Amino acid sequence: MLHDRKNEHLDVVLSGKGTSRARTGFDDITFEHVALPELHMDEIDLSTDFLGKRINAPLLVSSMTGGPARAEDINRNIAIACQELGIALAVGSQRIAIEARENAGLGAELRRLAPDIPLLGNFGAAQLNLGFGVDQARRAIEMIGADALIIHLNPLQEAVQPEGDRDWRGLLNKIETLARTLGAPIVVKEVGAGISGPLARRLREAGVAVIDVAGAGGTSWAAVEAARARTPEQAAIARAFVDWGIPTATAIKSVREHCPDAVIIGSGGIRDGIDVAKAIRLGANVVGQAAGILKAATESPDGVIASLRLTIAQLRVACFCTQSANLAALGRARLIDL
After folding, report:
1. Burial classification of residue 163, based on how many CB atoms lie within 10 Å of its CB (0-12 exposed, 13-18 middle, 19 or more buried)
2. How many C-beta neighbours within 10 Å does residue 4 have?
3. For residue 85, is it left (φ>0), alpha (ψ between -120 and 50) or beta?
């Protein structure tokens, strides 16, 4: 059943029916154009440190995978692309692989294909109330040679999914226990409804190393669940929440204000390199993309590389036209108050 559900999720996202009605908030942000940048565009430094490794651009690809056969092809294509470009990769949920004690397309092959980049494992926070703990977390890391483990938060999706996990009591304490005992960095991310500044601060106090805001404006898992609903009532419940969540731009700004020293991943509806630039300006250290490259990832590494190179080129132009020689300067670029 879980395999079927993951495949259905993938089909809905690829069809475009899983897009949120919410706005990311990036359209409300305008950089002040610098007509005399006094830079050589080709010398702009887009590199940054992430999880102890240097990446060539502040990008992370979060894969949305289906059942094992499709997951293997998608992750392979993305891993090759990320290694080629020198950017980070976060895999989809490893729950099936851990429960079935098979790699489900998430094995050591990924690290062989991408030996030099930050690689992040992943499973849902709700699993911590269903028997998962330190042993499962270590297995998730070991099976792909991950540099960190994502614990994803998806309460809205679980709430509108008929077979969803409803018991979310005590999870902050369990995340804290994991963060203190795992021996590897913990990343906490939402899946499209955003993380607020106050919650991010509590997570940081619990020992979480990285916050991925994953705000509203991209994929809506309420819309995905509405599309795969089996009854009109289920669809109506889910459909009411397709614009629910904290806009990505708002979430990044709030988390940075509440957690000045945090490592922040800005994700959720990132469309192009200009959105990446705006996310960096608002306080993100790294910017995540998923649905925008998913179709290419089902086809070949070359398609993923082409899509990401376009984003990187757009980011470079945004830096040039804001007189930003590097990402630190981009984080201080002037904005127009509309």
Report:
1. exposed
2. 11
3. alpha
**Tokens (6 digits) for 73:** 């092809």
What is the reported pLDDT for 292? 80
pLDDT at residue 96, rounded to an integer = 83
Residues contributing to the annotated binding site for substrate = 5-6, 93-95, 157
Phi–psi pair at 173, nearest 5 degrees: -65, -35
Q: Is the pTM of this model over 0.85?
A: yes
Distance CA 317, CA 314 (A): 5
Considering the chain, what percentage of its residues have pLDDT values greater than 90? 77
How is domain 2-56+125-134+147-336 classified at the architecture level of CATH?
A: Alpha-Beta Barrel (3.20)
Using DSSP's 3-state secondary structure scheme, residue 200 falls into helix
Specify binding-site residues: 5-6, 62-65, 93-95, 122, 157-158, 189, 219, 269-271, 290-291
